[in-house]
Design goal:
The chain is an all-alpha fold. It has one domain. The chain is 96% helix and 0% strand. It has one helix and no strands. The longest helix is centred in the middle third of the chain and has 55 residues. The chain is rod-shaped. It starts with a helix and ends with a helix.
Length: 57
């Protein structure tokens, strides 16, 4: 009986860890895409500023 209960606890914990790791993976993926979008926005702003500077001349 005791071994069975321990196995149930272990499987329950590993299930929780799988869910936590899944969430961390999702968060990581979301932050990565957000970072890429932010980099693209920064590049666009720099390009826009270059055009503004050229127009001022």
């Amino acid at each position: 009986m005791k071994l069975n209960r321990i196995l149930i606890q272990i499987s329950y914990r590993s299930d929780i860890w799988q869910k936590v790791n899944g969430l961390l993976g999702i968060i990581d993926g979301v932050s990565e895409t957000a970072g890429l979008k932010l980099q693209a926005k920064i590049k666009n702003k720099k390009r826009w500023w270059k055009e503004v500077e050229e127009l001022k001349r």
